[in-house]
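B., you asked whether I could sanity-check this one before it goes into the benchmark set. Here's the sequence:
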Amino acid sequence: MTTAPHGGPPADTPSPADASTPSPAPFPQPPLTAFPTAAAAPVAPATAWPMVPPPGGDPAVVAAREKAGTAMGWGIAGAVAGGLGLLLSLVTFGMTVLGGGMSDGGGYETIRGTIPGISDGGGLGGDRLARLLESLENDAGYAADITCPDAALIEASTVVVCHGTLDDYEWTGAVLFEDAGGSFAVVEL
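And here's what the prediction gave me:
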């Protein structure tokens, strides 16, 4: 073996530029006769990703997919229900604590009573009803000044609307007669 004068490979080995010597293949190649040529089987066209298995596949896989879909549906429903619950609690908090409640600050309770001396189906003067309501409100601890209109006929479901002040606050009440004998209930409006 001789060395080349310029310090390269030995002179008896062919250089890569020498086309007369074939270079070794980087990987072993199968012989060309291993590939069919004339009667090749048809090749299936490429499918889009993700590959979807044909229907009626493995029952365990189908069951697992259905279970995952059901779990996802329950998860979404739970999130929606939780959001609605949070919204409802915030609205309730705002209505009660922050002063936007449905009540006008009243702890007013329905007052019930009977007007004595009313004949069945008789009328009632507004002054008499107002004095009775003022007496009942004073007994409940309110300073009352009430006026009521006259009622021509007292029977079940007759309503008389009275106005006035209770402890220096404007007050409106509905007197609902429950029968022709003078039994009534007063409700603040």
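One thing to flag: The helical segments are 59-96, 126-139. Otherwise nothing jumped out at me.
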